[in-house]
Amino acid sequence: MHAEPTDLDTAKAQEELAKLLEALVRQIPGAQWALLSTGDGLKLAFCNRSVDDADDAAAACTGIRSAARQLFKERPGGVRQVAVEHDEGFCFVMGAGLVDEKAVGTLLTVVAGRDADPGQAGHHMVRFVTGLDEQLVVAARRNGIRRLGAPRNGIRQLEQ
């Protein structure tokens, strides 16, 4: 039997994830902030942003992922990572955690300045994702969830 998480449990988990995101940002040279969000646009944990900015970013990251999926709609497989390059830096959106047909998945986003090395950012993001794996799934979505296949090139698929 699995007990439903309380608001206190959820707040504690969000705080712990925020600390892990802060550590991730410190590991990536040039990183400015990070966010964990659901695949349907709800923030789970964040660091170095306001609550409102994190809400906006969660919605935007879902849109970024959706646009990438649309480009490959007739191809098998799924989008694993999306990188956006801006004059002032980069935004990396990567699938995190477990997904199935009933779960929306989790997205990890890192925004970095233009001095960031995209390869190094991707490496640290993959290590973060694989280190947390199951903790990145909202408890209510655990039933019936299956693991994605082994990541290709160290990057998990956002969805199949």
Provide an overview of this structure.
- The structure is a single chain.
- With 160 residues, this protein is α+β, with helices and mostly antiparallel strands.
- The chain has three helices and five strands, in the order H-E-E-H-E-E-E-H.
- It has helices at 7-27, 51-71, 118-132; strands at 31-38, 43-47, 81-86, 89-96, 106-113.
- The chain has a five-stranded antiparallel sheet with strand order 2-1-5-4-3, sandwiched between helices.
- Strand 1 (31-38) and strand 2 (43-47) form a beta hairpin.
- The longest helix is centred in the N-terminal third of the chain and has 21 residues, at 7-27.
- The radius of gyration is 15 Å and the shape is globular.
- The two termini are 30 Å apart.
The largest sheet has its strands arranged as 2-1-5-4-3
Summing up helix and strand content along with how strands pair, one would put the structural category as alpha+beta
Low-confidence stretches: 138-160
What is the typical, i.e. mean, pLDDT?
80
Question: N- to C-terminal separation?
Answer: 30 Å
Count of beta strands? 5
Gyration radius, in Å: 15 Å
Biggest β-sheet, characterized? 5 strands, antiparallel
What is the chain-wise order of helices and strands? HEEHEEEH
